[in-house]
Specification:
With 124 residues, the chain is mainly alpha-helical. It folds into two domains: 1-30; 32-118, Cytochrome Bc1 Complex, Chain D, domain 2 (Orthogonal Bundle), CATH 1.10.760. Helix content is 51%, strand content 3%. The protein has five helices and two strands. It has helices spanning 2-26, 40-48, 50-53, 81-90, 104-118; strands at residues 60-61, 67-68. A two-stranded antiparallel sheet has the order 1-2. A hairpin with a 5-residue loop joins β1 and β2 (67-68). α2 crosses α5 (104-118) and α4 crosses α5. The N and C termini lie far apart (60 Å). It binds heme C. Heme C binds next to α3, α4 and α5.
Length: 124
């Protein structure tokens, strides 16, 4: 009887340990995958922005040496919501303006997409 209890306790603790470990590995920050996202803002990004910034927003260097910035990490030039909004609306330095192509609501969704999904709040 006593032995049985010990064995039972042993199995419960081993199970607990594994459950704990799995929970830890699950809680690692997950990278946001634009290609897999079903949200409206991710599809706006795929349609309007990925041609320059790349499908996963990692940026690229063009043949003539111009750099399209990574929107996920690096030294961000536009940090506040307002700065990002006006950059998307007005464009500049090689980026085209989206004021006539997207509604203010869509631009706002993209601002939040950049800030939360891509930068994960790093620039605030
Ligand atoms: C024609 C190519 C092009 C397209 C299309 C484009 N971008 Fe850009 N984007 C650029 C370039 C070039 C820069 C760098 C501008 C600068 O240095 O001021 C930039 C900069 C940015 C930045 C600022 C990055 C920083 O360092 O703070 C954001 C945010 C951004 N783009 C978002 C978008 C979004 C959202 C879209 C789609 C609605 C988009 N871009 C479409 C070329 C493009």
């Amino acid at each position: 009887m006593f032995i049985k209890k010990i064995v039972l306790v042993f199995f419960i603790s081993v199970f607990g340990l594994f459950a704990g470990l799995t929970a830890c590995s699950d809680s690692k920050p997950q990278r946001y995958v634009i290609a897999d996202s079903k949200t409206y803002e991710a599809s706006l990004f795929r349609q309007n922005c990925s041609i320059c910034h790349g499908p996963e927003a990692e940026g690229k260097t063009l043949g003539d040496g111009r750099i399209i910035p990574n929107l996920r990490q690096g030294a961000f030039k536009y940090k506040t919501d307002e700065q990002i909004y006006s950059h998307i609306a007005d464009g500049g330095n090689g980026m085209i303006p989206f004021r006539k192509m997207l509604t203010p609501r869509e631009i706002n969704m993209l601002v939040q997409f950049v800030q939360k999904d891509l930068r994960g709040g790093q620039s605030q």
